[in-house]
Amino acid sequence: MAVRVRHHVNPLRPGLRSLSPARLPLCSGPQAPAVDVELGCADAQFLFQLAQKDPSAQYIGIEIRQAWVDDVNRRAADVGLPLCAVHAHINVDLPALFAGHRVRRFFINFPDPWFKRHQHNRRVVTPELARILVELLEPEGELFFQSDVWDLALDAMAVFESEPLLRNARSEWSFLVHSPYGVQSLREERVLSQGQPVWRMQYVLAGSQRAQQGGSASRRDLLPDPTSSPCPAMLG
Ligand SMILES: C[S@@+](CC[C@H](N)C(=O)[O-])C[C@H]1O[C@@H](n2cnc3c(N)ncnc32)[C@H](O)[C@@H]1O
């Protein structure tokens, strides 16, 4: 059944900054499964596909629209995948949600662009968010961002490049053309089916083995994606 969801939610609305989500059902200890988190998951297609490929990890979607959260949790329970969505605010609730836990991968897939300049303060990627993600990542963890909006991707890259504890997995100010994950979010699927470009970037922690090895990107990830048309100047 189709879910009825409000089109956009203003994340600055006072009520949304005090959602106080319940603690996440995360395992802890050395044997605990890895935790992957999508920030702004909507229908969580990306996480469902990841969970199908590797059900040994735990998948968490953070979403500000309650209707999506309920829908994702219902579908995850139906298919028995280790996935749950949480009604929470990305820019407010992460430290409390993940207190005592570390995250293997944060995914920011196609965040709302908020095109008008006076609405840029509604965007999720800020220097404060970058610092929080750094603190929550596992030592060898990673942060992935993708968008079809060039200005938004460039603004996000400026934030991540300015965070001293992050390193671009490819090289400074470089886009990762190919998605390394073999799954697609709903928005990604739609954009690619229209032949539009997707701007992707992947960061690891400075000081991690991956940063010292020059990141995790394989040659295949760096090859131009035939379904997208990257800006040649940025691909070097
Ligand atoms: C454009 S949709 C992209 C959905 C999905 N990631 C995809 O790629 O198909 C952005 C999502 O982020 C959610 N969102 C926006 N700001 C948020 C915030 N501050 N906290 C939690 N979710 C947020 C929106 O409700 C929306 O579902």
Describe this structure in words.
The chain is an alpha/beta fold and 236 residues long. It has one domain: 3-Layer(aba) Sandwich (Rossmann fold). The protein has 9 helices and 7 strands, in the order E-H-E-H-E-H-E-H-E-H-E-H-E-H-H-H. Helix 3 runs parallel beside helix 4. The longest helix is centred in the N-terminal third of the chain and has 14 residues. Bound molecules: S-adenosylmethionine. The site of S-adenosylmethionine has 22 residues, from strand 2, helix 3 and helix 6.
Spell out the blueprint of helices and strands.
Blueprint: E1 35-39, H1 45-53, E2 58-63, H2 66-79, E3 83-87, H3 90-97, E4 103-109, H4 127-136, E5 137-147, H5 150-162, E6 166-168, H6 186-193, E7 199-205, H7 209-212, H8 219-222, H9 232-235
Parallel strand pairs: 1-2, 1-4, 2-3, 4-5
Antiparallel strand pairs: 5-7, 6-7
Helix pairs in contact: 3-4
The structure holds S-adenosylmethionine.
Residues 9, 11, 40-42, 62-65, 68, 89-91, 109-112, 124, 185-188 line the site of S-adenosylmethionine.
